[in-house]
């Protein structure tokens, strides 16, 4: 028997802005009486995406859902109906009716959307945007060096990148390399250390996730640091990641 998640009726929608036809909405609500929120990126039409969690999917909305700290231990509890919760978040949108898990790709994080950061890089009609939440205080690690155990169940850098160009499946996959490298640049610039061994420079957390959204203009078959669109993705990701980490640090420690 699954425990149904209950969202309160005190739901408030906040529109962060519209970017190249993409509308960014934050849905504020409560789940099991805990304040929470979720980012919904409404795409102008169904677009191809690649997610480390859901794989290749054509969707109309990308979501990043905050899981409040008191509920962290329930995240992997099979008795808790998290899919039902995600459905409720989608239905709570003030912009679009009929959203379902079938036309969405969803991430979750212990970081509130109050600490969300976004950045855009553009060049002669090409552009890339990155929307990032970053919690590095609990399980930052140096990949391949630190062992795979948790200090904190939730501590995640979630990165959503939207590109102006149409990306083939190969280009979507290749962009993960560029996005990850750009994230590491931000982590190094801010001297984020491993939670397991503070003498080591971190490269990420143990639960980082990426979603890349293909655009609608000319087709791109390859992404790397040598391509202009790869450069733009990297610049947007590094800037947004640095801002997200900085906002989170200020909120927690100042």
Question: What would you note in describing this structure?
Answer:
This protein is an alpha+beta fold. Strand 4, helix 1 and strand 5 (104-109) form a beta-alpha-beta unit. Helix 2 packs across helix 3. It contains 3 helices and 13 strands. It has a single domain (12-253), classed as L-amino peptidase D-ALA esterase/amidase, CATH 3.60.70. The strands form 3 sheets. Strands 1, 2, 3, 4, 5, 6, 7, 9 and 12 form a 9-stranded mixed β-sheet that branches. Strands 8-11 form a two-stranded antiparallel sheet. A two-stranded parallel ribbon has the order 10-13. The mean pLDDT is 90. The chain is globular.
Find the structural class using helix and strand composition: alpha+beta
Q: Report the top-level CATH class.
A: Alpha Beta
CATH-defined fold name? L-amino peptidase D-ALA esterase/amidase
Unreliable stretches covering 5 or more consecutive residues:
none
- H-E order: EEEEHEEEEEEHEEEH
Topology:
Blueprint lengths: L11 E8 L2 E10 L2 E18 L3 E12 L15 H10 L12 E6 L7 E7 L2 E9 L5 E2 L15 E7 L2 E2 L1 H21 L14 E2 L3 E5 L5 E2 L7 H26 L1
Parallel strand pairs: 4-5, 9-12, 10-13
Antiparallel strand pairs: 1-2, 2-3, 3-4, 3-12, 6-7, 7-9, 8-11
Helix pairs in contact: 2-3
Overview in brief:
With 254 residues, the protein is of the alpha+beta class. Helices cover 22% and strands 35% of the residues. A hairpin with a 2-residue loop joins strand 1 and strand 2 (22-31).
Tags for this entry?
254 residues; alpha+beta; L-amino peptidase D-ALA esterase/amidase; nine-stranded mixed β-sheet; two-stranded antiparallel sheet
